[in-house]
Design a protein that fits this description.
Helix 3 (64-95) packs across helix 7, helix 3 packs across helix 10 (189-204) and helix 7 crosses helix 14. The model has no long low-confidence stretch (mean pLDDT 83). The chain starts with a helix and ends with a helix. It has a single domain, classed as MetI-like (MetI-like fold), CATH 1.10.3720.10. The relative contact order is 0.14. With 273 residues, it is mainly alpha-helical. Helix content is 72%, strand content 0%. The longest helix is centred in the first third of the chain and has 32 residues, at 64-95. The protein has helices spanning 3-33, 53-61, 64-95, 101-110, 116-129, 137-140, 148-158, 163-171, 176-187, 189-204, 208-213, 223-233, 238-258, 260-270.
Length: 273
């Protein structure tokens, strides 16, 4: 066996071990959620009598259907806002030349170093003054104000598009908005898909903001808050907890597999590592 083939087998073995380490906990999670209560402490991986009763009981204990709907609505609105505002800002930074463009972009990137906990108090005061405390609006309104990470990701992709396309369109009399919507956005579908998955996942898993603005109303709050409340009440019921966990991660897994090719292509072409 040549050294090259030995190296290939070594890499394959390392990847296989890594895959097992990553998939193993997920398999245990799903398996436990299908076990009856009497088998929750069994050491067997596969349930002896699989049942979906844990999932049915979840919706009897708490209104998980409402919390799933709330999380889905907020995540979709937030993702839409991020895609729109970040792509528009990225287009300006990548195509339009104006004094101080690079300096302004660096200042924007510096905001990535500011923890969210630093800005939560002034944001809370603003939303409280506007009478939006206790509503879902504070969870998605900030998404329509742009973001440094999304702007950086989309700008990196827009810079791979030949600038001659925009210059030719300008010569033909096209406005910047028309160039953005008819040329750059259609060409940026892979990057948009990648950023959409990241933005959706971040909004779906957001517990911090939901705890602050929707702390007690179960009918309005998100699934992450519901899971936190459920954990405090049923911490010893592992089968129910695992079923709730499966429900919480299922939408993210589905979204990722539906846009897997676009996600990988968008990340690769944007230059992120």
């Amino acid at each position: 066996m040549t050294r090259t083939r030995q190296a290939d087998w070594g890499v394959f073995l390392a990847l296989a071990i890594g895959a097992i380490a990553m998939v193993g906990p997920f398999i245990w999670l799903v398996s436990t959620s299908l076990k009856p209560m009497s088998e929750q402490f069994d050491m067997t991986l596969l349930p002896q009598a699989p049942t979906l009763g844990n999932y049915a009981r979840l919706f009897e204990i708490m209104p998980f259907h409402l919390m799933i709907f709330n999380s889905l609505k907020i995540s979709l609105i937030s993702t839409l806002g991020q895609l729109l505002t970040c792509s528009m800002a990225a287009f300006i930074f990548a195509v339009v030349r104006f004094p101080g463009r690079n300096t302004l972009f660096v200042l924007l990137l510096l905001t990535l170093m500011v923890p969210a906990q630093v800005t939560i108090i002034p944001q809370f005061i603003i939303f409280k003054t506007l009478g939006l405390y206790g509503t879902q609006a504070p969870l998605y309104i900030p998404s329509f104000l742009g973001g440094a990470f999304g702007t950086f990701l989309m700008r990196q992709y827009f810079q791979t598009i030949p600038l001659e396309l925009a210059e030719a369109a300008r010569i033909d009399g096209a406005s910047l908005s028309r160039i953005f919507f008819t040329i750059y956005l259609p060409l940026a579908k892979p990057a948009l898909a990648a950023f959409a998955i990241i933005a959706f996942m971040f909004s779906w898993n957001d517990l911090f903001s939901a705890l602050i603005y929707l702390p007690s109303d179960v009918d309005k709050t998100t699934l992450t808050v519901g899971l936190a409340l459920f954990q405090t009440q049923y911490s010893g019921h592992w089968t129910l907890m695992m079923a709730a966990s499966v429900i919480s991660i299922a939408p993210i897994v589905i979204v990722f597999f539906l846009a897997q090719k676009q996600f990988i292509s968008g990340i690769a072409m944007s230059g992120l590592k």
